[in-house]
Amino acid sequence: MSDSSLKKTLHIVFKYVSNILSWTLFVVLSLCCAFLIYYFIAMNIYARKGPGYEPEIAIYTIISGSMEPEIKVYDMIVDKKVRKPEDLKVGDVVSYNSTKLKPGEKISVTHKIIAIQEINGEYVFTTKGINNPTKDEYPVYFEDITGKVIFKIPQLGKVQFLLASKMGYLICILIPAIIIILKNTVKLIRLLKLEERFPNNILFMPIKPPQKLLTLKGYEKPFEKIEIKKQNIEEPVEIKEEKTLEEIYEELKKLSNKNKL
User: Fold this and answer.
1) What is the dihedral of CA 77, 75, 128, 114, to 10 degrees?
2) Does 205 fall in a domain?
3) Is this model's pTM higher than 0.70 or not?
4) Which of 69, 179, 203, 209 has its CA 20 to 30 A from that of 82?
């Protein structure tokens, strides 16, 4: 394989892979954007209407080591809403709201269920942090549980904290936005300079020159016509309505020799 064909093959492969990666990234970002919109709306509804209106899917970033090594600090967990207390069992990791850790303040806790009791027809759950020496001091009731952990994304919370910081905002949002604005400004300036140089021209892509179809003797079907492109020809060629293939070839050869001279 020659160097030119190798470069061409590599270029095609690179372009193909780039297209796949670009579309994959676009789909992922679109899904993330759709989920964030849903989550924002669902959390606003929950904030206004309270218990019973928890979102179907909730996301939390772990900020304590009580569940290590199973769930580490800065891991992001995804919770699914639980419809019935019977759907929970010992060993499930749940998130619940507690107002007893700090009076007057609702704190979200993610711990593992170690015992379930039914008292006077009401389910009472005992929870514990894996890394804690003792179980949680206060019992957990079903109405306090906001969801069951279905999976975790390791260390993704660091990205959240980075974006929430001033430095993260500067690096991830402000600087890329400035770069995009500058690039578009440079493009606009170039277009304005072209317009000054060519005030009577429209700055669009060139239109493909018209093409003429010539019928060969003995052939009448449209797909059996020869297509002659009148491109890069300084002088027009007068061609009769019907010509043989040999006649057309000779005229084009004469024209080519004339242009070389």
Assistant:
1) 50
2) no
3) no
4) 69
| Residue-range definition of the domain harbouring residue 191 | 165-197
Considering the domain boundaries, does residue 203 fall inside one? no
Residues in CB range of 182: below 8 A, 6 or more apart = none
60 and 157 assigned to the same domain: yes
Are 130 and 223 members of one domain?
Answer: no
Q: Which helix (H) or strand (E) holds 180?
A: helix 175-197
The pLDDT tens digits of the residues spanning 85-141 come to: 999 999 999 999 888 877 778 888 999 999 999 888 889 999 999 999 999 988 999
Cβ atoms of 76 and 163 closer than 8 Å:
no
Kindly provide the residue ranges of all beta strands, DSSP E only, lying in the chain, ordered along the sequence: 57-61, 76-80, 93-102, 105-119, 122-128, 140-141, 145-153, 211-216, 226-229, 242-243
**Pairing label, strands 93-102, 145-153:** antiparallel
Between CA 219 and CA 224 the distance in angstroms is 6
Same domain membership, residue 99 and residue 11 = no
SS3 9: helix
Same domain, 51 and 32: yes
**In whole angstroms, what is the distance from residue 230 CA to residue 211 CA?**
6
pLDDT, tens only, 196-225: 766 555 544 555 555 555 555 554 544 444
Question: Does residue 202 belong to any structural domain of this protein?
Answer: no
Parallel, antiparallel, or unpaired: how do β-strands 211-216 and 242-243 relate? Answer: parallel
Q: Element (H or E) spanning 19, and its range? A: helix 3-49
Sheet order of strands, 122-128 included: 57-61, 76-80, 145-153, 93-102, 105-119, 122-128, 140-141
